[in-house]
Amino acid sequence: MGEADGAAVPMTRGARTRQRREEIVAAAARTFAEQGYAAVGMREIADAVGVRGASLYHHFASKEEILYAVCLTVTREPNEENLPLLDAAGTPSQRLAALVDGHLRHLHRRRTEHVVGLHELAALTPGHRTEIDGYRRYYQRRVRDVITAGMRSGEFTVPDARLAAFAVLDMLNGLSNWFRPDRDLDLDAVVSGYVDLVVVRMLGAAHCASPQAPRP
Amino acid sequence: MGEADGAAVPMTRGARTRQRREEIVAAAARTFAEQGYAAVGMREIADAVGVRGASLYHHFASKEEILYAVCLTVTREPNEENLPLLDAAGTPSQRLAALVDGHLRHLHRRRTEHVVGLHELAALTPGHRTEIDGYRRYYQRRVRDVITAGMRSGEFTVPDARLAAFAVLDMLNGLSNWFRPDRDLDLDAVVSGYVDLVVVRMLGAAHCASPQAPRP
DNA sequence: GTCTATAATAGGATAGAC
DNA sequence: GTCTATCCTATTATAGAC
Questions:
Q1: How many domains does chain B fold into?
Q2: Is residue B209 part of a domain?
Q3: What is the pLDDT of residues B87-98, one digit of tens each?
Q4: What is the pTM of this model?
Q5: Distance B27 CA to C1 C1' (A)
């Protein structure tokens, strides 16, 4: 394992740079979430990473670019990870139940970033704001579409898909503002409780917990 | 109507001062909502009111005190105006329906202030933050209590009042982030739709729209 | 109650050495 | 890729005249 073959340890430099970028984004998300974007200085982010303020500009052109990276994490990831659940096999109830599950688990896994992404959109440049809003609107539309599909199939008895989609997503996203696992309320309990509240109760599906055959 | 009786035109000076205070709070809420608290300077607030920056300090000791005033509006007012609806006569379904109605109308009437109050709490001083959180927690507890009452009376079939209270309030508060009246979605439609989604569908009440006698 | 003028500080960002 | 040093500007807040 000498240095004869450079390809044996490929992209070591690039990987390290990428890792440092992610350290910066993670540290920034933490401080932004606690104090608010505009109240945090580049020096404070740098301290959290363990470098000097000027070094951040080797990785990001501006403070807003760091915020943009945080916001991308919580708008693009759900589109890439959760929306495929809506394209999978199954009834609208089953597919929406899977999305609610995935959505809540992503909200928790990226809890810090979501707090920023849901509160600091006003600080983005107009171009970045438009892009982020586009991801969010697409996600919203896909949720509305699966509700509409469930209404057509007769599974959902709700009268207005648009209103229901707002209600569902606001209810889900609210989680990141209050959920802290404790002795009598862990994530699995919230997830199954919310799937029931949304899919069975609010939308009116007869059942949805586990994959099932279509009704005869 | 001479100057013999000072009480004939009472508090004229105080009323004007109070009015200017409210102008400042209103202008600040607008700019905070659009750009975020920390991104707004005292000069910008002053411009919106039509005075110089220094003049604001005659009415408020600091920028944070203005934010505190905005946050008080959207945490104390709902406690004072909406919570009495939970103490009125009627079944838990009826009382919660009235609260949902009042809550949504307040969210809309104080739309700008709510955007600030829901996004900028991190910028409050610890003391103010604690006070505001107290109002919010009390409101949340009252909603949970009426849900518990409905569970005991058998009207609500939901399994967990705490989880349901979070779901309901997050769903309601989300309104201020997206609702703009348009041709096919006015406030009355959203209110009646959300009352149905929350009280009838999510919580499981058989009906609640209008006052009714208890079931035999 | 509002003004002008200014203090005191901190902010984002850049230049250039290593 | 990170550092030191620094520029330039904007900020909150105060002092004191009117």
A1: 1
A2: no
A3: 999 999 999 999
A4: 0.92
A5: 18
